[in-house]
Amino acid sequence: MELSLATRTVGEHTVLEVGGEVDVYTAPRLRERLLELIDAGARHVVVDLGRVDFLDSTGLGVLVGALKRLRTADGTFALVCDKEPLLKIFRITALDQVFPLYPTVEAATGAGQ
Amino acid sequence: MATVRLSFSPAPVHVRTARLVGVAVARRAGVREDLLDEVRLAIGEACTRAVALHRQYGLAEPVLVEMSDSGTYAVRVVDRAPIEASIGLAALDADQLANESLNEDDLTTGVGFALLAGFVEDLQVRPVDEGVGTEVRMVWPVNR
Predict the structure, then answer these.
(1) Partners of residue B119 in chain A, C-beta under 8 Å
(2) Cα A57 to Cα B114: distance, rounded to the nearest angstrom
(3) Boundaries of each STAS domain copy (chain A) (predicted)?
(4) CA of A86: which chain B residue's CA is closest?
């Protein structure tokens, strides 16, 4: 399934809803969108992975890049994910200790991130 | 002898095709249904790594994927990059991953190996028998 990207605003948070497959081919589009959002002034970004059915190391690299960029800009970055196969990927790579991970967008945006 | 052999030009767009073929052959070979997500991810990571190496060294040769189902489901992903560049299993901990000085390419490589090692119990990365390059060999059990 192709990558889909949709942005909405929840309070002070910019929520990027990602769907489909995030891999070595599609990850550059995700990187580009995140950079656009940050360049446009978004400082509290939540990426909702709820409709992602494939995520590889390239996609994870893009997400870490956005996290670091926002940290440098005194912003915050959080992920929404409640699918066990994806959560396992975060655990295996130790990235569950790097990203704030929430089960729902409400939890991510209401947690003062 | 390989059941299915696939070679593709080293472009990111073809990695998805390799994943789809790899999972289709795995299913037909009798790999347990609950392992197929891991098969898909591992084949994708191995192919992504090979494509990245070919692009890094400007190599136009195809990446080779061989799938064999004699007794087990074995997948070989073969690249043609210089060996000194391609063997190096970097395990990154959380502090290293979050370190500002780690660039995205190195992070992706480390994370890719972590996924391969984490999802494939029977994994080997070794020089190819002939010529230049390395092969990533992954084996899964089949139910027959």
Answers:
(1) 92
(2) 9
(3) 3-112
(4) B37
pLDDT (tens, 9 = 90+) of chain A, 113 residues, equals 689 999 999 999 999 999 999 999 999 999 999 999 999 999 999 999 999 999 999 999 999 999 999 999 999 999 999 999 999 999 999 999 999 999 999 999 985 44
Cβ-Cβ contacts under 8 Å, A85 against chain B: 37
Query: Hey, what domains does chain A have and what are their CATH numbers?
Result: 4-109 (3.30.750.24)
Q: Which residues of A touch B41 (CB under 8 A)?
A: 54, 56, 89
At which residue do the structure tokens 């909702």 appear? Answer: A48
CA distance A10 to A105: 9
Please name each of the domains of chain B with its CATH number.
4-141 (3.30.565.10)
Q: What is the ipTM of this complex?
A: 0.90
Global confidence as pTM:
0.93
B16, B94, B111 ranked by CB distance to A97: nearest: B94
